[in-house]
Design a protein that fits this description.
single chain; about 450 residues; mainly beta; Porin; 22-stranded antiparallel beta barrel; about 5% helix; globular
Length: about 450
């Protein structure tokens, strides 16, 4: 996302680990002194130091994340803020293994604002929200700076409508020129336990010298099956979207939850009905780098069963590209099967074992993962484990690595209800190199 403050060039840090440890300690003491039960705000402040190493290189970064909910004691408004600052302590060479999107900015200290909005209480509106916000209910997730207004007709509990408008916000774009969003929705409860929703979205996006303008329609029907009780719930949902009048995709999902018997079942089917290419960023953020995404179908089935001393999770993913001539590096046929077993108490340890099988053209993998965990006195928790990822996405640096085996040691200390520390060491091995990573984290909840 675009930086939300003009940062100055950060100075190099000599004793990096020492500086970070002192800063974390100071934050802990300051937080303990300032936190009061009467504060009209709640949330958390997370400070994270990360060091990464290979045989030839190293990288040191500090991340500061603030997640806050605000409330007016008089009830006239409420709000929320989620922001992150990144400080690159030592700089990164573009040719380095650790170079990422976060290193493309001009400065080593940068901030990102994920959301910052205010909800104003209005008797005639179900919701009036101003600011940077994210829409999850719409056919595609949307981040924008602007206004959202939801109307609930007076005296009706079965109908709702809403509109939104603003400037689109796209991760790691430096300018909002030419970015606009506009939309509306209407929802109806045709019978108890069911909801029918219609969305219209108009998206404008200008990038790489090209203007994109797309209109998307979405239709969702969800319903509960049978009589819902505290012990059992089943539901079905169908989602369909249309782009510029042509069918775009279809998703079917089914869920069954039976807590009384420790059982759950989830099934889904997704089909991309048309080639995805050269669209506004919220619809297709990857075409510029990964090229077209051709039509495919994917089915997923998973189930869990809990017994008193044992738990199982099993599932499968099956994906097929519609035309075999369209199979490529980032859009291919595959089958995945997995099974996870957990034993909560083995010699005072919690044991989890996971096995996975991947099948695709030219690539077959059988992998396993294991974790041992134990709660210690004084609020400490210790875990040791290993797992394999065919694709691993690094959220902090927005990058993907292939076929990664990770072994880790995780130590957590819940110092009090408001303060927690975490130390994690990871050793990663992939087809290109070996990586070591150390993370030290302090979290203050207020």
């Amino acid at each position: 996302m675009r930086p939300w403050w003009p940062s100055e060039h950060a100075a190099s840090c000599g004793a990096r680990a020492g500086v970070v440890l002192c800063a974390l300690g100071a934050l802990s003491s300051l937080a303990e002194a300032q936190a009061t039960p009467s504060d009209p705000a709640s949330g958390r402040l997370v400070t994270r130091y990360r060091a990464r190493f290979t045989d030839d290189e190293s990288d040191h970064d500090v991340y500061q994340t603030l997640d806050v909910l605000l409330a007016d004691p008089e009830g006239h408004w409420s709000g929320a803020l989620l922001a992150r600052a990144t400080w690159d302590l030592d700089g990164t060479d573009p040719d380095s293994d650790f170079y990422s999107l976060a290193d493309t900015y001009e400065h080593r200290l940068e901030g990102q604002l994920y959301h910052a909005y205010v909800d104003l209480a209005q008797p005639e509106l179900a919701l009036l929200r101003l600011g940077r916000q994210t829409l999850y209910e719409t056919p595609v997730t949307l981040v924008f700076d602007g206004l959202r207004a939801d109307l609930a007709p007076r005296g009706s509990t079965r109908a709702q409508a809403g509109v939104f408008a603003g400037i689109g916000e796209h991760p790691y774009e430096s300018s909002s020129d030419g970015d606009a969003v506009l939309g509306a929705f209407a929802a109806l409860r045709p019978w108890d336990g069911a909801e029918l929703r219609l969305d219209w979205m108009h998206l404008e996006d200008e990038r790489l010298g090209t203007e994109h303008e797309d209109d998307l329609l979405g239709l969702v029907l969800g319903t509960e099956l049978g009589e819902r009780t505290s012990a059992r719930r089943s539901q079905l949902e169908t989602r369909f979207t249309s782009l510029e009048g042509d069918a775009r995709d279809l998703r079917l999902t089914a869920d069954h939850l039976d807590p009384a018997h420790g059982f759950s079942l989830q099934a889904s089917y997704y089909e991309l009905l048309r080639t995805q290419q050269d669209l506004a960023a919220p619809l297709d953020p990857f075409t510029d780098t990964l090229f077209e995404l051709f039509p495919y179908a994917q089915a997923t089935l998973s189930a869990t069963k809990d017994w008193r001393s044992f738990a199982l999770l099993a599932g499968t993913d099956v994906r097929r590209v519609e035309d075999e001539d369209d199979v490529g590096e980032y859009n291919r046929d595959f089958e995945r099967y997995w099974l996870t077993g957990s034993v909560p108490e083995v010699l005072s340890l919690a044991l989890t074992l996971t096995g996975e099988v991947w099948r695709s053209d030219g690539s077959d993998y059988e992998t396993w993962g294991a974790t041992l965990a134990r709660a210690l006195d004084g609020g400490f928790d210790l875990a040791l484990g290993s797992y394999f990822a065919l694709y691993e996405y690094d959220l902090l640096n927005a990058e993907e690595r292939d076929r990664v085996r990770t072994t880790y040691l995780d130590l957590r200390w819940k110092r009090s209800r408001a303060h927690a520390w975490r130390l994690r060491y990871e050793y990663e091995h992939d087809e290109i190199d070996d990586f070591q990573e150390v993370r030290l984290e302090y979290e203050w909840s207020f």
